[in-house]
Design brief:
This protein is of the alpha/beta class and about 325 residues long. The chain has two domains: about 130 residues, ornithine cyclodeaminase, domain 1; about 170 residues, NAD(P)-binding Rossmann-like Domain (Rossmann fold). It is built from ten helices and 14 strands. The chain is globular and about 60 Å long. Helix 3 crosses helix 4.
């Protein structure tokens, strides 16, 4: 996680400098509203030797929670920029789980109060586990509460967290109970309607809104977003896909200017205005293909260095008759 967080700092600075090609992802919604299939390409520019190209093809199946299957499944393909050779095929489930939480960790370091350490996690799936890991790195966490609609899932998450991190997770009876008094809140659910209301959130809290990634779904109510200083991974993506932003905008509660900055802009130049102890900050995460390419590049380099992975020939030099 710490290595991935460092990589995310670098890639968001690269994006803010205009050194990446990043079209909006193409999402096909499956019949019956069962899920979605998405394709996410990106290029990280550099010299011929350092340019990285990649694409993630992934299915998103929210109903998989509680089954043996991850909600996000697919593959990331990493190419090099010199000859366009395919360098690696990576498991998108693992990569998405880590890089998404790593970005929230970077945002928390940039936006949360220095003394923040009372953590609420809403949702208990894969992203809850990686977000706990990222928050433990981002701040000195002193208390953790978790909530899910299924109490059994909360108990299982608490048990896993104790074994893996030595952290006590307090099950909360409701989302309101989990959020009350917390100064860091991570929403990592499959909810389509708000699970957090503005009146529940403590002054000075920071919220990572992660779970909703389509324009018709949200985890935060309109009052929360209107009250908050809002930061996003990318404006173009938020304006096209972020229900947490688009729904209150459609209600006339906010305008496009309510987005204060992209994460990369923060990392390059700092906050546009100082953070007041009472400020509510929200980081709206949608997930970007540049994150996948940057994380894949790190994994590939470490695999080469350690001799990890399975080698497969899929073309390239075979075309030269070797």
């Amino acid at each position: 996680m710490s290595v991935c967080m460092d990589a995310m700092v670098d890639v968001f600075r690269t994006l803010a400098r205009g050194e990446a090609l990043l079209p909006l992802r193409q999402v096909l919604h499956l019949p019956g509203g069962k899920g979605a299939f998405a394709v996410m390409p990106a290029v990280l520019a550099g010299s011929t030797q350092t340019t990285a190209l990649g694409v993630k093809a992934i299915t998103v199946m929210p109903d998989n929670h509680g089954t043996p299957y991850d909600s996000h499944q697919g593959a990331v393909l990493l190419f090099e920029g010199g000859h366009g050779s395919l360098q690696a095929i990576l498991d998108a489930s693992a990569l998405t789980a880590i890089r998404t939480a790593a970005v929230s960790g970077v945002a928390t370091r940039a936006l949360a109060r220095e003394d923040a350490g009372d953590l609420a996690i809403l949702g208990t799936g894969v992203q809850a586990e990686t977000h706990l890991e990222a928050m433990l790195l981002a701040r000195r966490v002193r208390r953790v509460r978790a909530w899910s609609r299924d109490a059994a899932h909360v108990g299982a998450f608490a048990d896993r967290s104790a074994r893996r991190h030595g952290v006590a997770v307090e099950p909360a009876a409701s989302a309101r109970e989990a959020v009350a008094g917390a100064d860091i809140v991570c929403t990592v659910t499959s909810a389509h309607e708000p699970i957090v209301e503005a009146e529940w959130i403590a002054p000075g809290a920071h919220v990572n809104a992660v779970g909703a990634s389509v324009r018709t779904a949200r985890e935060l109510d309109s009052a929360t977003v209107a009250r908050a200083r809002l930061f996003v991974d990318r404006r173009e993506s938020a304006l096209a896909e972020a229900g947490d932003f688009l729904i209150p905008r459609a209600e006339g509660r906010i305008g496009d200017e309510h987005i204060e900055a992209e994460l990369g802009e923060l990392l390059l130049s700092g906050l546009r205005r100082p953070r007041s102890p009472a400020d509510l900050t929200v980081f709206k995460s949608l997930g970007l293909a540049v994150e996948d390419v940057a994380a894949a590049r790190v994994v590939h380099a470490r695999a080469l260095a350690t001799g990890t992975g399975t080698w497969v020939e899929l073309g390239g030099e075979r075309g030269l008759g070797r």
